[in-house]
Specification:
Elements lengths: L4 E3 L28 H21 L6 E3 L1 H12 L4 H11 L5 H18 L10 E11 L6 H11 L3 E4 L5 H15 L19 E12 L10 E8 L2 E18 L3 E7 L5 E8 L5 H6 L3 H9 L2 E10 L1 E8 L1 H6 L21 E14 L3 E14 L10 E4 L4 E7 L5 E7 L5
Parallel strand pairs: 3-4, 10-14
Antiparallel strand pairs: 1-3, 2-16, 3-5, 5-13, 6-7, 7-8, 7-10, 8-9, 9-15, 11-12, 12-13, 15-16
Helix pairs in contact: 1-4, 2-3, 4-5
Length: 418
C-alpha cells in the first residue's frame, strides 16, 4: 500500500482516520534515478503549471500557487471520470500516462519527495508534508474501486461527513485538517457557505515546505533598497545580498539563478527579466520546453546576488480558469463521474486553492491547499568574474524537486510589500 508522507516536527497526526501515522523519518534518499513514469508525471505537471500560470497571471499583482497540489487533487478526481469528461481532464492537466500507470506514478513521485527529505545519516534535511484526504457524505454509495484506488495511491481514506445536516461543522473539520497539515499557514480554505446540503464529496490536497538555504544570507548584509513595483513607481524594500557560486544562466531577455536548499534536493529558481517591464513577456515564454532548456543551461558562476525578503498569500477559485483551459464537461450537467458513484450523476462544484510563501535570509516557508467539491449535476565551471543578479524589479520564481524537475510551487513577485 502506498501512502503519502509527513516530514515535520509539527504533524503528529496523519491523513485519514482509517490509516495509521506514516513518516519517512527513517527513509534513505533514493539513490536510483526517477523511473520513466515518475519523470513523465513530473514533466506533465510542469506543463500544467506553465499553462495555469499563463491564465492566472492575467490579473494584476503578486501571484503564488502550488501546481503540484492542484494537479494532485484533480488527478484524484479524474480517477472517477469517464468518457469525454476524462478526456478533457487528461488534456487540461497534461496527463499522458494511462490511468493504470498514472495514479501509481503520482504515489511514487510523492514517496520520492519524502525520501529525498532525509539525508544518508537519517537526519531530516527540511520539513516537507504532502497530504491528501477524501471527505464524503455519510452513507453515500461510492464505488469501491474508486475508494480503494485513492486509499492505495494517495493515502486518502474516506471520512464520512454529515454534509446534509451539519454542513458548517463539516467545513470547519476540513479547514482544521488543512491547517494542521500546513503548520497553520493555510487557514479557512473553505469559506462559509462553500459546503452545503448538496455537497456529496470533497477531495483535498495539502503541501507544506520549510527549508533553509544551502548558503544562507547574512542578515547584516540586508538593506533597504529601491524595488521597481511598476513603471514610474519604486518603493524601499529589504534587499538581501551575498556573493557566492550559484547555478546561473542568461539570455538576451532574462537571467536565471538557482538557490538550493539544504540537502540539495530542492531549489528555488528565480527568473529575472532584464527589463523592469519585462515580466509579461517572460510569462508568455514560460513553458515546459523552455523551463527544461533554461534549467539545462544552468552553469556554476560567481554571482553577486540581490533578492528581496517577502511574504504573501494568494487564493483562487479555479472553476472558470479550468473551464477556459478545456475542462468544461466536469463542471456541467454533461459530467461523467460514474467511476465515483452510479446512484446519481455528479459534477465538480468548485475548485478552491490557497497558498502562502515567506522568503527570508534563512530560507523559505511555503504552503498550499486545494479542495475539489462535488455535487449532483442537477445542481449547478571556469574562473569568471562575478555576474550581478539584482532582483530589484518584478520576477518569476519556482520551487522544484531537482531530481525529477517537478514544480511544487510557482509564482511571481510584483510588490514585496504585498
Amino acid at each position: 500500500m502506498r501512502m503519502p508522507f509527513s516530514i515535520s516536527f509539527f504533524s503528529p497526526l496523519f491523513l485519514s482516520v482509517f490509516f495509521p501515522v506514516l513518516t519517512m523519518a527513517h527513509a534513505q534518499a533514493p539513490a536510483e534515478p526517477p523511473s520513466a513514469d515518475v519523470k513523465t508525471v513530473a514533466g506533465d505537471g510542469d506543463a500544467f503549471a506553465a499553462d495555469l500560470y499563463a491564465r492566472l497571471s492575467s490579473a494584476d499583482g503578486n501571484l503564488f500557487f502550488s501546481p503540484y497540489s492542484i494537479s494532485s487533487a484533480l488527478a484524484m478526481t479524474s480517477a472517477g471520470a469517464r468518457g469525454n469528461t476524462a478526456v478533457q481532464m487528461a488534456r487540461t492537466l497534461h496527463l499522458a500516462l494511462p490511468p493504470a500507470q498514472l495514479h501509481s506514478a503520482f504515489a511514487d513521485l510523492t514517496a520520492r519527495l519524502g525520501a529525498e527529505a532525509v539525508g544518508p545519516d537519517k537526519k531530516k534535511l527540511y520539513d516537507l508534508v504532502v497530504a491528501s484526504a477524501l471527505w464524503g457524505l455519510k452513507g453515500y454509495p461510492y464505488e469501491k474501486s474508486f475508494l480503494d484506488l485513492l486509499a492505495k495511491d494517495y493515502g486518502a481514506g474516506l471520512r464520512e461527513m454529515d454534509f446534509s445536516g451539519a454542513p458548517d461543522a463539516a467545513r470547519n473539520e476540513i479547514n482544521a485538517w488543512v491547517s494542521t497539515q500546513t503548520n497553520d499557514r493555510i487557514k479557512d480554505l473553505l469559506a462559509p457557505g462553500t459546503i452545503h446540503t448538496h455537497t456529496r464529496l470533497v477531495l483535498t490536497n495539502a503541501i507544506y515546505f520549510k527549508g533553509t538555504w544551502l548558503t544562507p544570507f547574512e542578515k547584516a548584509q540586508t538593506a533597504d533598497a529601491p524595488f521597481q513595483v511598476f513603471a514610474g513607481k519604486t518603493e524601499l524594500v529589504p534587499l538581501m545580498s551575498q556573493q557566492h557560486g550559484f547555478q546561473y544562466m542568461e539570455t538576451a531577455e532574462m537571467q536565471a539563478v538557482e538557490l538550493p536548499y539544504a540537502g540539495n534536493n530542492l531549489s528555488m529558481i528565480v527568473l529575472l527579466p532584464r527589463k523592469a517591464d519585462g515580466l509579461t513577456a517572460l510569462g508568455k515564454s514560460l513553458s515546459r520546453d523552455n523551463l527544461d532548456q533554461w534549467t539545462g543551461q544552468l552553469r556554476r558562476r560567481d554571482v553577486q546576488l540581490f533578492l528581496p525578503r517577502f511574504k504573501l498569500t494568494s487564493q483562487f477559485e479555479l472553476a472558470d480558469t479550468l473551464k477556459a483551459m478545456g475542462m468544461v464537461d466536469a463542471f456541467s450537467d454533461n459530467a461523467d463521474f460514474s467511476g465515483i458513484a452510479k446512484s446519481e450523476s455528479l459534477c465538480i462544484d468548485k475548485v478552491i486553492h490557497k497558498a502562502f510563501v515567506e522568503v527570508n535570509e534563512e530560507g523559505t516557508e511555503a504552503a498550499a491547499a486545494t479542495a475539489v467539491l462535488m455535487k449532483p449535476t442537477a445542481v449547478m565551471i571556469r574562473p569568471e568574474p562575478p555576474v550581478a543578479f539584482r532582483a530589484d524589479h518584478s520576477f518569476v520564481y519556482l520551487i522544484r524537486n531537482r531530481s525529477t524537475g517537478a514544480i511544487l510551487f510557482l509564482g511571481r513577485l510584483v510588490d514585496p510589500k504585498g
